[in-house]
Amino acid sequence: MTSAQAIRFYEAGSPDVLRFEDIEVAQPAAGQVLLRHVAVGLNYADTYFRDGTYPIPFPNGMGVEAAGVVEAVGEGVSNVQVGDRVTYTGFLNTLGAYSTARLIDADVLIKLPEGISCETAAAMTMRGLTSAYLMRRIYPFQSGDTILLHAAAGGVGLIVTQWAKLLGLTVIGTTSSEEKAAIARAHGCDHIINYSHENVAERVRELTNGVGVQVVFDSVGKDTFMSSLDSLKRRGLLVCVGTASGAIPEFNPVLLAMKGSLFITRPALADYIADPAEKQALADELFDHVINGRIKIEINQRYELKDAVQAHRDLEARKTTGSSIFVI
Fold first, then answer.
1. What kind of fold does domain 139-266 have according to CATH?
2. Which helix (H) or strand (E) holds 238?
3. Which CATH number among 3.30.110.10, 3.30.470.20, 3.90.180.10, 3.50.30.10 corresponds to the domain 2-126+276-327?
4. 260 phi/psi in degrees, rounded to 5
5. Residue 90: what pLDDT?
6. Which of 131, 193, 198, 295 is found 20 to 30 A from 274 (Cα to Cα)?
7. 188-199: per-residue pLDDT in tens?
């Protein structure tokens, strides 16, 4: 057995349900590895597990993304070995990342190349792979296309903006403050709309000569759903990638026809990395961009694992920018 610490919770609720506990980790069974974490990712999706949006059995662990070093391997494991630096992200299959050490199935692990630290990996594996499939799998972007990106100063937003510029896209970003607007601009955002006091759809029409954008990436949900639809050009695509303000309202699909034969999708990262070859291809492209400096990963908040309650409070209060991690 290996002694470790972890965040556990026994009921859904506010950040206060999170508990910092001592645990014992067994030796890996067949197909598993014992992983010693170096850094753990903090993602908005974590709050959905905590507050019950994503129902799970209790008690349970928290978090789905981390990076670290393999300390032991179980029978039949051949894709990694002791001493390898690895990262991972997922959904229910990786829940429990808020820990100093854990057992995990070897087949979810991605080896880290030289030039990518564990801290960088923990800050970007989920956000980076999400950005990768949004940029490379969701829509056949052409140079000159324009996108609307909500939460442009967030962890995914900053990566998507940089990737979009590599593809020759024009990026209209939304933020809630001038501070966040400055961060988004510094990462390549062409136009900023402050949704605190500007009408998003009206500004998008002004910026696109009345046409609208090809694609909207909306991680906010309820508060931005209608303005996102109203920002699209005819036959445009709304990509609902999160619900930070709450679930989008129920609607009659006829609404999509009335607003220009629009399309809407609600993708999940798990479905774009379920195939090992596709996951590796997306990871390789992401790593290459980061190693060569074409995409920069901003770690703007670092927490200790014991401070998970405060980290969740900061996240839900929209006090964070870029990526946030727990340093072990």
1. Rossmann fold (3.40.50)
2. strand 232-240
3. 3.90.180.10
4. 120, 30
5. 87
6. 295
7. 999 999 988 889
Strands, sheet with 19-25, edge to edge from the N-terminal-most edge strand: 19-25, 2-9, 60-61
pLDDT for the residue 1:
85
Enter the tokens of residue 18. 């999170």
The predicted pLDDT at position 97 comes to: 98
Strands (E), 57-212: 60-61, 65-73, 85-89, 101-105, 110-111, 146-149, 170-175, 191-194
pLDDT at res. 246: 82
For residue 220, the model assigns a pLDDT of 87
Identical topology for domains 2-126+276-327 and 139-266: no
Q: Check residue 244 and give its pLDDT.
A: 77
> Cβ distance 308 to 18 under 8 Å?
yes
Please give the Cα distance from 295 to 135 (Å, whole number): 13
Are the C-beta atoms of 99 and 306 separated by less than 8 Å?
Answer: no
pLDDT of 160 reads 96
Which residue positions in the chain have pLDDT lower than 70? none
- Six token digits for residue 47: 């709050």
